[in-house]
Amino acid sequence: MYPFPERTPIMSALTATKIPIRRLREEDRPLMEQMYASFPGQDVALGLPPRDLGRLRSWLASLQSGVNLVAVTEDRMAGHLVLMPKGHSAEMALFVHPDFRRQGIAAALARAAVEEGRALGLRCLWVLISSSNYAARTGLLKFGFHVAWEGLGEAQLVYRL
Hints:
Helix content: 25-40%
Strand order of the largest sheet: 1-2-3-4-5-6-8-7
């Protein structure tokens, strides 16, 4: 695992019930796999999350080297964000389970990611999304990301820290 200092963001999503945002714990891994395995087929964006269980497990294992933040209820994972730092920037991937969308979870995860990025001395976060993912685009722009480039059905959005 990447040698990130352990930090526990103290925040929660603004939902009807508070859902805490925190670092991924080992005991959360089955909930994460369950969350991604239950995504409807139309929720796959740029091939993620992988639909095949073996590929899903391999992809999740590849994310262990990053900073993983989660929104977890008592028995379900509502959302997951990973930062994959390289140099002074980090690629970010953010997923919210369809049952928990439009409840502030993505924004709460993104705020926690900004805190983590600043604590790590990063200069920017970036995310790659499908150009047709209007909900993600709108949310990211509202949060403060800006479009760095767009083409071939994809867009890269950047947030300066």
